[in-house]
Amino acid sequence: MSSKTVANSKTVANPDAAQRGLVTRFIGSRAVYHTIMIGFSIIFVVPMLWMVMSSFKTKREIFGSPFSLPKSLDFSVWTEAWERGNLGQYVLNSFFVTFVSVLAILVCSLFAAYAFSRFEFRFKNVLLGLFVLGLLLPVQSYLTAQSRLFDALYILDTRWALIIPYSGLGLALAVFLLKTYMDSLPKELFEAARMDGAGDMRILFSVVTPLMVPGIATVAIFSVLATWNEFLLSILYVVDDSLRTIPAGLLAFTGKYSTDYPTLFAALSIITIPMIAIYVVFHRQVIAGVTEGSVK
Amino acid sequence: MKPVRARTPYLLVLPAFALFAFVVLGPVLANTALSFADWSGTNAIKFVGFSNFTRAFRDDIYLMAYRNTFIYIALTLVFEVLVGLVLAGLVTARGRKTGFYRVAFFIPVILPMLVIAVLWSFVYSDDIGLINGALRGVGLDSLTRVWLGDPSTALIAVSLVSGWIYAGFYMAIFYAALTRIPNHVIEAATLDGATESQIFFRIKVPMIRPMIEVAILLCVTGAFQTFDLFYVMTNGGPDHATEIVTTYLVEVVFRFHDLGYGAALSTIMTAVVVTIGLVLVRLRGKDGGNGVEF
């Protein structure tokens, strides 16, 4: 089928090539191209701009003139939202949970990936297969039993209620990715280190880890984002407000101030803007990290 | 390579495996066992055979949740993958400076889904909403509606937000694949008189076909796991019009405390997701990337 259409379009294209050229030149012109692209950008950016702008407006202005610019940039609503909403506590909790979880993921997965990539041992493929299974299964498919297990062990409603599952859930992908990266390191490197008398752990710390920095960075970016943004477990496993992470905290916040729009928009802006700023600075690494983590 | 000591590899794998077994493997096994039981979490566990499963297949809400999930999958294939492909095509059009757009389109991917869900609930809101505000502004008052409260628009409205988030993600994947196409291929086509759009549809898209298939796989299996958007924006309502498998599951387990039934629902869901995943992988493998449309 495709060869026929190609042939057809060639015979059609050639007679009025001049005219076609004009049309494509018009569509392909700088102005039109950028108009299309700016149109798309508006769809992406306008909701976020509206959020930030509305945080500086009064409730009446949000209702009456949704598209107007705010009259002044009065940050007092922001500080009020930060204090009344206990946002500082949520941010601290998120930092703590994310830091410990990602550290656990990186250390455990680096060890495991090293074993899977470099050594032959019994049950290797069975163990690796189990990790791959973990990649396939969504958390909802074992959530019921997991929540009961954590409840029985008195883990629920403590910091561990999030740190343990986040580390365990992130491991499968991390092991798999780091193993893939490690497989591509040249064999001679390890043999040479062995010749020089380095032991297994010495090779891991002095030879492998320095070479794996880009791969570890990818896994770290991926894990940080997944942990920082995780929502389902954060609302199910932690009820104590002083232990809540940002997503669960913000949800409680929206419940409390459901019609106080300026304060709500201020809270959302406070959480969003620093993330966007960090992303813009490191956008190359972030985009690469997120896409590689999902596709591999 | 042979380890210096035979036990080294096991010790290396141990921490990861212990954590993984505790968080994933144990619960998976327990969950499967629980599917055959009746339990509220406080009373004694009672073995009930397959009755949870037969109940599931007669549960109208559960069946509706599958219908909605499949509609959602179909919509996200368009709003996420197809739009992502178009965006990737636009940002790789030759001789353009497009870094700004690429960075901008990816922003929603990195933000907490909760923030986006709350923000878009406001965008769709009846009184302060941007969409109704814009419609009123241009005199189309008759088109305004409660987007998330109307059963006929709620599912599409949520799916559009999903597209808004992930179109940039698929664009980034396709962008990476497109930029790996060797330059001489494109140059040869240009010399033959192909236009930019012909080059895109006839050369670039077929060449990144494997990546498109991966994207479809990710999109379909990922759609099954979606929870945050639906939970925050509609929580399954109005009248179960946006009830999806995960929102119903959470309701059964954490609101009705019907743990055995909830476990059975997730066992069924796991079977469905794994089956679909395997079928898609099979379809990709069999024809070596030729002729199969899905």
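qc> The two ends of chain A are 33 Å apart (CA to CA).
qc> done
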